[in-house]
Amino acid sequence: MSVQVSFRQVASVAAVAWSGAFLEWVDFYTYALLAVIVAKVFFPSADPIASLLASFAALAIGFLFRPLGAILFGKLGDQFGRKIAFIAAMILMLAGTLGIGLLPGYAEIGILASIGVFILRIIQGLALGGGYGAAITYLGEFVPEHRRGFFTGFLFTTPPAGMATVGALIWLFSNILGTQAFNAWGWRLNFIVAGVIVFIIVLIMHMFYKETPVFSMLKAVRRVTSAPIREVFSRRYLPLVLMAWIGVVGAHGPIWYTNQLFNAYYIGPNFQNYVDAATASALLSTATYAALWMYPLFGYISDRIGRKPVLLLGIYGNALWFPIAFWLIDQVGPHKDLTALWLLFWSMTLFNGIGYSGAMSAFLLELFPARIRLSAVALAYNLGYGVTGGLTPFVITWIYSITHNIYLSTLLWSTVVPMIMATWYVLKGPETLGVRIWAEFATEKFAKKTVTLPATTPIRQVISALVSAGSKYAVLTGSVVGIFGTRSLLRALSAGAKLEEPAGNYATKVPCINADHPVTEVFVALEQYNVRAVPVCKGNEVIGIVEASRFNKRIACAKKRI
């Protein structure tokens, strides 16, 4: 049961959602992959580790503000629409990205440059915290129920694709301009180009795309909540948010960022120094592109076998692969074996496509009701990947400053911690495959009991039954189903009908809507038959009626005959 959306419309929505989310990640991760250069420009220090820690702190603060962005834009999206929240977040990301690209360095304005970077990273964190949750919800509420994992899996290619694209742009600009010019000023081009493209996508989405059918339905049936955040933190939903954050998204967060970010730092000049930073970025970028097919594939697999087995394979399988993968990196790295390094990077990005696939997005979408979906999805996602995952470079570097063993530091955070966190999901997490997000809009949920009589019942007896039941309408059954109300009575009397005549002669003939079908069929019947109520059936039995007064006035018909 769902509202039918054409494949062409789904494809169009998927394309713009993918583009918007992709560019948000390009903007956000441009800083991450340029952290070493940014450290020298905005956080100069005689101690390179201290400088890098300051740069990673600015990286981390962007992640830490993502949950606040989830709350702000989640409230916006659950009250005013998914599209509005998505566009607003993209505009904010545009401001943060261009700001970093144009901000003077420490040599020009001193400590104000360092402060400015922190402020702009906060802006980016707020934007991404709301924007990506809005993108997931926007697309997820358009796609077919039985292909939610597959279609939203394409959306989950945007973070790795965005990061890989940033790596490719860094490699391209550094080769065109030369290392010296790129480090001096060319790195700013990455921020400026990304910001300009985001502006174009915002215009396209604003002009040509509309609200999701699910949120439109929420407005129509008057179920938009005025306090989505309060509901998210209620006793009913907070345990689900915490389980999704800690047991699923948070457990995979350190894994994802180790696969997609820290492995490049690991082999680069700041740690093992097997290759230069540009080569490390190129290895990671190409390996990531070669693994993007995994994200929709395992989303599709989750549509068949369930979300939980796919997600657990992505967490535990990947966590147990790290000790082997990084040991192998340390064997081939000193020999500058780029082919072997690339294959090991590829194995990591392949694993990312299991846990961070359409299974993840479908699980989050199916876990929460429509009225709080954007807030809950965005909060759980950003607490997991934004906080637990986003802290990965900083935490591993901090552990390394104590242990002086980068291999051990990586495994403590990226293998041990995720395996412990995921036990919550193993023990308490539900399987959400089979949950239909349209089920809350089934016609039965809007029906109320009414008087049901045979169509041959005399008008006098129908009136008596209505008065006794305190009901406005009676459903009359027979060869066809009809609705008899006050105006039906007036119409009968004005035609000279006797009170002993069958009421069915003056009832308005309307179809009986299946209780399991979406309430949109009620809207169609209300307008097509120009009535104020329609009957609801389960099988051959009338179980009640749905009245137009239950819905937004724009749904109701201008003229009624009952």
TrEMBL record:
GO terms for cellular component: plasma membrane. It is found in: Cell membrane. It holds the Pfam family Sugar_tr. Keywords: CBS domain, Cell membrane, Membrane, Sugar transport, Transmembrane, Transmembrane helix, Transport. This is Sugar transporter, putative. One of its GO terms (molecular function) is transmembrane transporter activity. PROSITE patterns: CBS, MFS, SUGAR_TRANSPORT_2. It is a multi-pass membrane protein. PANTHER family: SHIKIMATE TRANSPORTER. The chain crosses the membrane at residues 21-43, 49-72, 84-103, 109-138, 150-173, 185-209, 237-257, 277-298, 310-329, 341-365, 377-400, 406-427. It comes from the Archaea. Coiled coil: none annotated. Residues 506-562 form the CBS domain. Residues 13-433 form the Major facilitator superfamily (MFS) profile domain. Its main location: membrane.
